[in-house]
Specification:
Helix 8 links the parallel strand 10 and strand 11. The protein is about 35% helix and about 20% strand. A 10-stranded mixed beta sheet has the order 13-12-14-15-24-23-22-18-20-19, with helices on both faces. The protein has a 7-stranded parallel beta sheet with strand order 5-2-6-1-7-10-11, with helices on both faces. The longest helix is centred in the last third of the chain and has 16 residues. By secondary structure, the protein is of the alpha/beta class. The protein is built from 18 helices and 24 strands. The protein has 2 domains: about 280 residues, P-loop containing nucleotide triphosphate hydrolases (Rossmann fold, 3-Layer(aba) Sandwich), CATH 3.40.50; about 260 residues, Class I glutamine amidotransferase (GATase) domain (Rossmann fold). Helix 1 packs across helix 9, helix 12 packs across helix 18 and helix 14 crosses helix 15. The chain binds glutamine. Glutamine (GLN) binds next to strand 20.
């Protein structure tokens, strides 16, 4: 490996959205990392929200949380799952954040009487962040993905910043443009015109793409690639196709086969050297191909949208692969659940995940589901709100507090078994004010969770302290288990087996006499990666797999 000064790769998209720019950016990161380079991947989104934390999941899917407590775009989840790098608050930037920095600076008088304009003030701030100035990192590559589609009014300042950087950085910058090549059935033809237009649009903004990644549902032959290359002023070896793959995790390998990483290196002027074997990745893919036995898992949630629980879906999928099964996920809308239909809705399910969420809608259905799985001993994983639901259900049906609730869902409940955290009570601003990011949690020796973390080396396991493991997991919540009730729960069989050692907050509950009935206040799904699937998801899948075998 040749040591390099930091190089910058910009990834833009054209024609339509949802082409999988995040997967391509993550794949480039993976491939360069496999060559021994230190890489980070960042996302610039053109919307005005300061961060996606206040967005409804129907807008942009799940909100991913970094270890340092930033609410970010879900693409950061792909970056972390593919590369195992830990992203930070500097890896997810929005137009809103850029403007806020500039406007705050203006109010502070830092611009010495100048007129503040999109060019150069906004674009300079974008450039500063794209270059990750002042972060004191020692990176070989910074990959910057820009959200949205070329031609959007919103992304114009980002494009101008890339144009300028490209000019200033010379060969130290590379532009990768992702487009779509549609297949027209009636004509039986693949069409390159949208790609040509998209590249023209990019050129009109002063950016010549170095590399084109063509998304396609059909294989593109060389003559078609040659046509694109010659119409778009791009070398043939720099026109790469990204066909639909059976799994997104096949994409890096497919990109490597076509030499995407090598093309990037050649553009920059770094000797390409040998193609890395990526053995652990290939072993994972092999396992994925061989995992055919199906284990059906229900996701009980309220957002009927693939992307809303992205990290949970991927974590279950990855854990399944490592346990040699194919997890088949069934979304069950908790708003449709009643005591009368729950048996039918969960019939055939080997395990149930009760999903995170905010607000009252759909929570009574989740409580019905938690009661059903507890009383029928179906392996159940409650995550964040899901854990709180388990706690509420237990209070109502085991402790006998029929009116028990979370004060989020019923402000006046006399039995607030889940209550607002003290530190949250005086907060009035919505954005970025929850308990966010990674906190340590001490697990109780002998509990199922403690055992789950031990055999698998996982990034969130911080070793042993005294008589139990310490783990570090990410959070995103305002409410917590009300410790006033702890003794009653423990006496009735629901144990508090994970505690934050500093704040004394309950982080994990479990019912040891059940097969697998565990709720976590934290979100383990944010720290599950391809090469390090999360131990709790592995343990859950194990339980679901054996429960299925018995029934
Ligand atoms: N709404 C709950 C809280 O704020 C749970 C949040 C979540 O599931 N992420 O505590």
């Amino acid at each position: 490996m040749v040591k390099v000064n930091t190089k910058y790769i910009f990834v833009t998209g054209g024609v339509v959205s949802s082409l999988g720019k995040g997967i391509i950016s993550a794949s480039i990161g993976k491939l360069l990392q496999a060559r021994g380079y230190k890489v980070t991947i960042q996302k610039f989104d053109p919307y005005i929200n300061i961060d996606p934390g206040t967005l409804n999941p129907y807008e942009h899917g799940e909100c991913y949380v970094t270890a340092d407590g930033m609410e970010t775009d879900l693409d950061l989840g792909h970056y972390e799952r593919f590369t195992g790098i830990e992203t930070t608050r500097d890896n997810s930037i929005t137009t809103g954040r850029i403007y806020k920095t500039v406007i705050d600076r203006e109010r502070h008088g830092d611009y010495l009487g100048k007129t503040i304009q999109v060019v150069p003030h906004i674009t300079d701030e974008i450039k500063r962040r794209m270059l990750r100035e002042g972060l004191g990192e020692d990176l070989d590559f910074v990959i910057t993905e820009v959200g949205g589609t070329i031609g959007d009014i919103e992304s114009a300042p980002f494009m101008e910043a890339i144009r300028q950087l490209r000019w200033e950085l010379g060969r130290n910058a590379v532009c990768v443009h992702l487009t779509y090549v549609p297949y027209l059935k009636a004509a039986d033809e693949l069409k390159t015109k949208p790609t040509q237009h998209s590249v023209k649009e990019l050129q009109s903004m002063g950016i010549q793409p170095d590399i084109l990644v063509l998304r396609t549902e059909r294989h593109l032959d060389d003559s078609l690639r040659l046509k694109v290359a010659s119409f778009c002023n791009v070398d043939l070896e720099c026109v790469v196709q990204s066909e639909d793959m059976p799994s997104i995790y096949e994409v890096p390998v497919n990109m490597q086969k076509q030499g995407l990483d090598a093309a990037i290196m050649r553009k920059i002027g770094i000797p390409v050297g040998e193609t890395p074997a990526m053995r652990p990745w290939h072993e994972f893919l092999e396992k994925q191909r061989n995992a055919t036995r199906i284990v059906p898992i229900a996701l009980v949630g309220k957002y009927d949208l693939q992307d809303a629980y992205k990290s949970i879906r991927e974590s279950l999928n990855l854990a399944g692969i490592y346990k040699d099964v194919k997890t088949e996920l069934h979304f069950i809308n908790s708003e449709d659940i009643t005591a009368d239909n729950i048996a039918e809705k969960l019939s055939g399910m080997a395990g149930v995940v009760i999903c995170p969420g905010f607000g009252k809608r759909g929570t009574e259905g989740k409580i019905v589901a938690a009661e059903y799985t507890r009383t029928h001993d179906i392996p159940t994983f409650g995550i964040c709100l899901g854990m709180q639901i388990m706690v509420i259900e237990f209070a109502r049906n085991v402790l006998g507090y029929k009116d028990a609730n979370s004060s989020e869902l019923d402000e006046k409940t006399p039995h607030n078994v889940i209550d607002m955290m003290e530190e949250q009570k005086n907060i009035t601003e919505m954005g970025g004010t929850m308990r966010l990011g990674a906190y340590e949690c001490k697990l109780v020796e002998g509990s199922r969770v403690a055992e789950a973390y031990r055999p698998t080396p996982s990034p969130s396991y911080n070793g042993e302290q005294g008589d139990g493991p310490i783990v570090s997991e990410r959070h995103r919540h305002r409410y917590e288990f009300n410790n006033k009730y702890m003794k009653e729960y423990e006496a009735a069989g629901m144990k508090c087996v994970g505690i934050n050692p500093v704040a004394n907050l309950v982080e994990v509950v479990e019912i040891p006499e059940k097969r697998w009935y565990i709720g976590t206040q934290f979100h383990p799904e944010y720290s599950s990666t391809v090469l390090h699937p999360h131990p709790l998801f592995m343990s859950f899948i194990d339980a679901a797999r054996s429960a299925e075998r018995e029934s």
